[in-house]
Design goal:
Radius of gyration: 15 Å
Largest sheet: 8 strands, antiparallel
Structural class: mainly beta
Helix content: 10-25%
Shape: globular
Strand content: 25-35%
Length: 190
DNA sequence: GATTGGATCGCCT
DNA sequence: GGCGATCCAATCG
C-alpha cells in the first residue's frame, strides 16, 4: 500500500520510485492497467517548463493541491496527459506519467486505441490516457482512495533507471528530469 | 475579446 | 524527418 508521505519525497525521487508501480483504471468497459515505465518530474516555481511555474491558474489548481491526486490536462486540441501531484500543498510539483507496459485489459485497450500491437497501446502520455479511458473528468481524483484510478505497488522488480532531458518542452530543456526503465521496450523513446 | 502556443500523435514523404 | 489536426486556457490589450 502506498502512503501519502510517498509523494512528499523530493519530486525527482518520486518520479524514479513510481517506475515499476501499476496504474489501474476501472471503468464500465472493464479494468485496464499498466506498469509505469517512464516519468518526468516538474518542479513548480523552480521549473520554467512546469505549468505551475507562474503560480496557480484555473487549469493548474489540482497541481497546487494535496499530493497523491491526479492532475489531468488537455493538450494539442485532442489529447490528455496524467500527472501525480507531489510535494506539500501549494508547491505545484507533479510527475508526468509518460508510458506504461500494458498488463490487464489489453483487449479493451486495443479497442480504445484502434491498434493491435502491445507496444502501440501505452507508449506515450497521450496514448496511455486513451488506453486507460482517462479524460479531463478525472482531474483531481485521489489516487490513494479513488474507485476508478488507483496506484498499486508491484512485485519486486530488478531494473536499471535511465535519465534524460524531458521530451516535448521548449524551456529548461537541459534538466535531467525524465526517468525510464532502461530495459523496457514500452517507453515512448529510447 | 482576440490571439497564440502547447509536457502529442499519426500519417506523409 | 516533417507537418497538420484541433481546442483549451494563458496571456495580452
Amino acid at each position: 500500500m502506498i502512503e501519502r508521505d510517498f509523494f512528499l519525497q523530493p519530486t525527482t525521487e518520486v518520479a524514479k520510485q513510481l517506475l515499476g508501480l501499476e496504474l489501474i483504471s476501472q471503468t464500465p468497459e472493464g479494468l485496464t492497467s499498466g506498469r509505469i515505465v517512464e516519468t518526468e518530474a516538474y518542479l513548480g516555481s523552480d521549473d520554467p517548463a512546469a505549468h505551475s511555474f507562474r503560480g496557480p491558474t484555473s487549469r493548474t489548481q489540482t497541481m497546487f493541491g494535496e499530493p497523491g491526486h491526479a492532475y489531468v490536462y488537455f493538450i494539442y486540441g485532442m489529447y490528455t496527459c496524467i500527472n501525480v501531484v507531489c510535494g506539500p500543498v501549494g508547491t505545484g510539483h507533479a510527475v508526468l506519467i509518460r508510458a506504461l507496459e500494458p498488463l490487464e485489459g489489453v483487449e479493451v485497450m486495443r479497442h480504445r486505441r484502434g491498434r493491435e500491437k502491445l507496444i502501440d497501446l501505452c507508449s506515450g502520455p497521450g496514448k496511455l490516457t486513451i488506453a486507460l479511458g482517462i479524460s479531463l473528468d478525472d482531474d483531481g481524483r485521489d489516487l490513494l482512495t479513488d474507485k476508478k484510478l488507483q496506484l498499486r505497488s508491484a512485485e519486486e522488480l530488478n531494473f536499471k533507471i535511465a535519465t534524460s532531458a524531458r521530451i516535448g518542452i521548449t524551456k529548461a530543456t537541459d534538466l535531467p528530469y525524465r526517468f525510464y526503465i532502461k530495459e523496457s521496450e514500452f517507453v515512448s523513446r529510447v
